Amino acid sequence: MPGTEDLSPDLSHRVPDVPPDRPPPDPVKLLAYWMEWERATTPPGRVMANLKTAGLRELLEALVDPARAGS
Q: Are 27 and 8 spatial neighbours (Cβ–Cβ below 8 Å)?
């Protein structure tokens, strides 16, 4: 997102099953998309698409099952 610093941790070693053509999830970007939902500035379908393409599933999987993500 323009104007935001890259404060995201490198999750590439913790996040499983990230396709090689997609970067690892960016928690800062995911939070920004979530805040768009809370402020009602973006339609729900667009927010869901943004969360999906930004790697929400992969991030949640890594947080739920750190043992699997480390392998």
A: yes
User: For every residue of 36-68, which 3-state class applies, written as one string?
Assistant: HHHHCCCCHHHHHHHHHHCCHHHHHHHHHCHHH
Instruction: With H, G, I as helix, E, B as strand and everything else as coil, classify residue 14.
Output: coil
pTM above 0.85, yes or no: no
For the ranges 5-9, 29-33, 35-39, 45-49, the lowest mean pLDDT is seen at 5-9
Q: How many C-beta atoms surround the C-beta of residue 27 within 10 A?
A: 16
> Domain residue spans in the chain?
27-69
